[in-house]
Automatic annotation (TrEMBL):
SUPFAM superfamilies: 6-phosphogluconate dehydrogenase C-terminal domain-like, NAD(P)-binding Rossmann-fold domains. Gene3D superfamilies: N-(1-d-carboxylethyl)-l-norvaline Dehydrogenase, domain 2, NAD(P)-binding Rossmann-like Domain. The gene is cryl1. Keywords: Cytoplasm, NAD, Oxidoreductase, Phosphoprotein. It is found in: Cytoplasm. This is L-gulonate 3-dehydrogenase.
Length: 315
């Protein structure tokens, strides 16, 4: 018997992230109950999940050892919160990114689950100490921040509340690993977590370079997609430094630390991301990819297909 057999995970929220989490957990053989407070929405989510799983199976990219039909047999939808939470050992909240909404969800959830049930939020930028502020037992609370789209991009940031028990981190880490994600542990909470802090640093400097007339939107994106992104798809910045000097990281720092400090000290202030600069950058990107839904949807589909291929290659 697999460790997942018969175990129940409740996903709260049936939007894009909720559906993605459901698919990830199903791939690991878990029973998944998906809940939405809007009547009929969770049921509609199952229709979309069925479509995606069947397409993935056809493309031979379905995760896990179960067929699409077997995974779908583990999925059920609910409009009643108490019923959705019955029997669950893990709750993954995936409602929209608004603090009050998330706090209300966890207040309601806590009334229907036992003390041993892990309460996890999908928030991408809200601090655990704020998300779980109204929860009575904060020791079983944790952030599990996925990267969109989670089915192809496996990283999950695990961020503890200051009161989170180490065992809760361990259980969540084990679960995420078991269903094929790539969890990373943050040792304490910090605004933006790790991924967005790194991402925002890249966005800020890219924005400044375009804003200051150094490079075009098209070319700064090529700097990432055809340059840094090529190696960052397989190794991170610290390993990159370690490999980019004959004798490793210590040698790299000896060679390049002064240059890094000089360049970093030349960075400008945090951009406003508004006004004339924002209008000009928006004009450039829209010339490359128009912002109507037809073009954006096609580009997102292209992104997901490329990520699917990259995931297959990395596997």
């Amino acid at each position: 018997m697999s460790s997942s057999e018969g175990k129940i995970i409740t996903v709260i929220g049936s939007g894009l992230i909720g559906r993605s989490w459901a698919m990830v957990f199903l791939s690991g053989g878990y029973k998944v109950k998906i809940y939405d407070n809007q009547p009929g929405q969770a049921e509609k989510a199952i229709i979309e999940i069925r479509k995606q799983l069947e397409e993935l199976q056809h493309a031979q990219m379905l995760r896990g050892s179960l067929t699409a039909a077997q995974q779908l047999s583990l999925l059920s939808s609910y409009d009643d919160l108490a019923q959705a939470l019955e029997g669950a050992f893990f709750v993954q909240e995936s409602v929209f990114e608004e603090l009050g909404a998330k706090q209300s969800v966890f207040q309601a959830v806590e009334q229907h689950v036992g003390e041993g049930v892990v309460l996890s939020s999908s928030t991408s930028c809200l601090l655990p100490s704020n998300v779980f502020a109204t929860v009575k037992n904060k020791t079983r609370c944790i952030i599990s921040h996925p990267v969109n789209p989670p089915y192809y991009v496996r990283l999950v940031e695990l961020v503890p509340h200051p009161e989170t028990l180490p065992a809760v981190m361990d259980v969540t880490y084990t679960l995420m690993t078991e269903v094929g994600q790539a969890p990373v542990r943050l040792k304490k909470e910090i605004d933006g977590f790790a991924l967005n802090r790194v991402q925002y640093a890249i966005i800020a400097e890219s924005w400044r370079l375009v804003q200051d007339g150094v490079i075009s939107v098209k070319d700064i994106d090529l700097v990432m997609s055809e340059g840094l992104g090529m190696r960052y798809a397989f190794i991170g910045p610290i390993e990159t430094m370690h490999l980019n000097a004959p004798d490793g990281l210590e040698d790299y720092l000896r060679r390049y630390r002064e240059g890094m400090k000089r360049v970093l000290s030349s960075f400008g202030p945090v951009p406003e991301f508004s006004g004339e600069a924002a209008a000009n950058i928006n004009k450039e990107i829209c010339e490359l990819i128009p912002s109507d839904q037809e073009h954006l949807s096609a580009r997102r589909e292209r992104r997901d297909q490329l990520l699917m291929g990259l995931a297959k290659l990395k596997k």
